[in-house]
Amino acid sequence: MKTNIILTIIFLLIVFSLVSVSCKDSDSDTTKPVISLINPADGEAIKIGGDMHLEMDLSDDVMLKSYMIEIHNNFDGHSHGNTRAAATEGPTVNFSFNKSYDLSGTKTAHIHQHDVVIPANATPGQYHLMIYCTDASGNETYVARKIVLSTTAEEHHITNH
């Protein structure tokens, strides 16, 4: 009887140890991915009616999963100042953009794209550009930049990428 109790205790300790080790292994990646946003610069003016040049490097110590681009207006000055939209002629729309991109199976990625097109009727003014990056373990980091949508900004003509 005493032997059965001792064997049961040893068995439970082994099972508990294995469960503890496996949980620690699956939770071991707590390092957030790294975003190095090259373009656009903070405060950069983006031409309304054109596309936004976006360039960045993304990396993770284990494996990336995805990144997301979000753009929303900052006409109310939330957390970043008190700039209002400039007056324009004709009807305008508050521009917003939200799109996710898959990076599964990579540890690093150099992103160079022009798929964010600013419509010709976008309301000029202050906007926020948010870049979110998530790794395969669910760790997320983000970078925020202020950008200005403007009818007088210069268009980007990048030919060497």
Number of spatially distinct domains: 2
Structural class: alpha+beta
Question: What assembly state would you assign to the polypeptide chains in this entry?
Answer: single chain
Total number of helices: 1
Instruction: Tell me the span between the first and last alpha carbons.
Output: 76 Å
Q: What is the element layout, followed by pairings?
A:
Elements: H1 2-26, E1 34-39, E2 44-47, E3 51-59, E4 64-73, E5 97-102, E6 108-117, E7 125-135, E8 140-150
What does this structure look like?
With 161 residues, the chain is an alpha+beta fold. It has two domains: 1-28; 31-150, Immunoglobulin-like, CATH 2.60.40.2550. Helix content is 16%, strand content 42%. It has one helix and eight strands, in the order H-E-E-E-E-E-E-E-E. It has one helix at 2-26; strands at 34-39, 44-47, 51-59, 64-73, 97-102, 108-117, 125-135, 140-150. The strands form two sheets. It has a five-stranded mixed beta sheet with strand order 2-8-7-4-5, with no helix packed on it. Strands 1-3-6 form a three-stranded antiparallel beta sheet, with no helix packed on it.
